[in-house]
Amino acid sequence: QAKAGGKDAAEFFTAEMTQRAESRMQLDADLRRALELGQFELHWQPRVSAAGGVLLGVEGLLRWQHPQRGLVSPAHFIPLAEETGLIVPIGAWVIEEACRQVAAWRAQGLPSFGVSINLSARQLRDDGLTDLVRASLLRHGVPPGVLELELTESMVMDDAERNLRQMHTLRDLGVGLAIDDFGTGYSSLAYLNRFPIDKLKIDRSFVHDMLADPTDRAITMAIIGLGHALGLQVVAEGVEEPRAAALLREARCDELQGYLFGRPMPVPAFEAWLAEREAPVTRVTV
Ligand code: C2E
Ligand code: MG
Ligand code: MG
Ligand code: MG
How confident is the model at residue 17 (pLDDT cuts 50, 70, 90)? Predict the structure, then answer.
């Protein structure tokens, strides 16, 4: 009887595993098609100065406009794309699209602001990365300093020496580098000092809970201190409440990003957001 049960269980698991493998293969096929058909888009979330609320930059966040499922968030497809390596061509599209979009904004004569995008580990390991970034910047006439690339600690620490070399070639090109989700990965402080980076972005889990949890607040404050001690700019992400923004401002955090200022928005919504913010200034000067 136990044997029969074991056999059933084995069959069950096999069926489930097959199903899972099939749905992964389906997702992989769908993602490849999505890239061909142009179903990806970037949504833009503002980063503002903590001191004055001035727009400093926008982070481009990937979305998949699926014909049946609607807007799909990156959490649902980036892990698989990283596993299969499809993140490399998808990431190349993100770099190209960010450069194209920021060039369009610059051509519209908007006040200038930076653009950041997220890289995955596979892209950082790809020897062609710097050339790819350089080509996209050149194609669209975007000065390298406008673009900032976000990496995570864990991503860099995995084969740190090689990744450090890649980071140096990117920095030599003139693009900015930021460490994203800081505080959640495993980076040694000795290495952190060797990263050729400009910025730390405090993970939103600390920022989100800092009002309720003294430990998260202490960690947030410590990261701001650490970043400044290393000569880095510090960004808090996930700022949702005015009280958190006030605390971060008092602590001399440099930039704030979060729903309090704006959600990630498709281009027309971001342009409307921008126009609305600029409007009172125009009225005052007129
Ligand atoms: P991330 O780079 O840390 O991006 C910030 C995430 O926090 C975004 O989620 C954003 O929508 C969310 N967020 C921002 N402000 C708030 C807030 O005030 N409250 C809350 N609850 N959330 C906030 P999203 O867009 O779902 O992206 C998730 C992650 O997917 C990103 O985290 C990034 O690691 C990854 N990702 C997004 N786009 C790309 C891409 O083009 N390439 C790669 N490799 N990864 C990407
Ligand atoms: Mg990011
Ligand atoms: Mg990230
Ligand atoms: Mg983050």
Answer: confident
Compute the distance between CA of residue 222 and CA of residue 185 in angstroms, rounded to an integer: 16
259 lines ligand 1 (CB under 6 A): yes
Task: Return the ligand 1 atom nearest residue 123 CA.
Answer: 44
- Ligand 2: centre distance to CA 101 (Å): 18
Nearest CA to ligand 1 atom 22: 238
- Give the percent of the chain with pLDDT over 70: 93
The answer to whether the CB of 265 is under 6 A from ligand 1 is: no
The number of the ligand nearest the C-alpha atom of 61 reads 1
- The confidence band for 20, taking pLDDT boundaries of 50, 70 and 90, is confident
**Does the ipTM surpass 0.95?**
yes
Residue 118 CB less than 6 A away from ligand 1: yes
Question: What is the structure's pLDDT at 6?
Answer: 59
Q: Which residue, by CA, sits nearest to atom 10 of ligand 1?
A: 264
State the SS3 of the chain. CHHHHHHHHHHHHHHHHHHHHHHHHHHHHHHHHHHHHCCEEEEEEEEEECCCCCEEEEEEEEEEEECCCEEECHHHCHHHHHHHCCHHHHHHHHHHHHHHHHHHHHHCCCCCCEEEEECCHHHHHCCCHHHHHHHHHHHHCCCHHHEEEEEEHHHHHCCHHHHHHHHHHHHHHCCEEEEEEECCCCCCHHHHCCCCCCEEEECHHHHHHCCCCHHHHHHHHHHHHHHHHCCCEEEEECCCCHHHHHHHHHCCCCEEECCCCCCCECHHHHHHHHHHHHHHHHHHHC
